[in-house]
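1st attempt posting a full record on here, be nice pls
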Amino acid sequence: MPRSQNKVASHRRRKRILERAKGYWGTRSKVLTVAKHHIDKAGQHAYRDRRLKKREFRQLWIARINAAARMHGTTYSRLIDGMKKKSIDINRKVLANLAANNQEAFAEIVKFAIA
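the predicted structure (as tokens):
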């Protein structure tokens, strides 16, 4: 009985792996076994960093809000507490955007929340 090699499927599998490794440096993009390891590692980083990205953006928004709040004589925690007590429902992303791009609107929110 002749040996079956399954050439088409194995060629496609190798091609798909090397296609995903395109742009990697040196052997990482040329040799199948090395490329396979680096594709797996890249996938692990991508999975982890999709979650880290959310944390990092929240930290950035809080830092921007705090800096802008301090320019108006209060702190981040006092501002958020005042907003909760006055039932102002603006998320941190929008609040940070206002702090960076529309200082007048941010100042009005601070005055209303602190008063």
